[in-house]
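pinned: reference chain
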Amino acid sequence: MVFLAILAFCAGTGGSALIIGSAAGVAAMGLEKIDFVWYLKKISILALLGYFAGAGTYILTQSL
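pinned: its structure tokens
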């Protein structure tokens, strides 16, 4: 059960690292005229940090 939960977390939030990784990201690019390179430089690092922090927290809480 733990594997399925972490798999769902990874699939659900992993697309945020690249704006083209999710349907919502593609829609935001079109509506707000967000440039892919701008997102890659400014937001991707923050999204990756949040992703790894969430995954680490989940794994830590499951090991306790």
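why pinned: The chain has one domain: 2-63. Residues 44-63 form the longest helix (20 residues).
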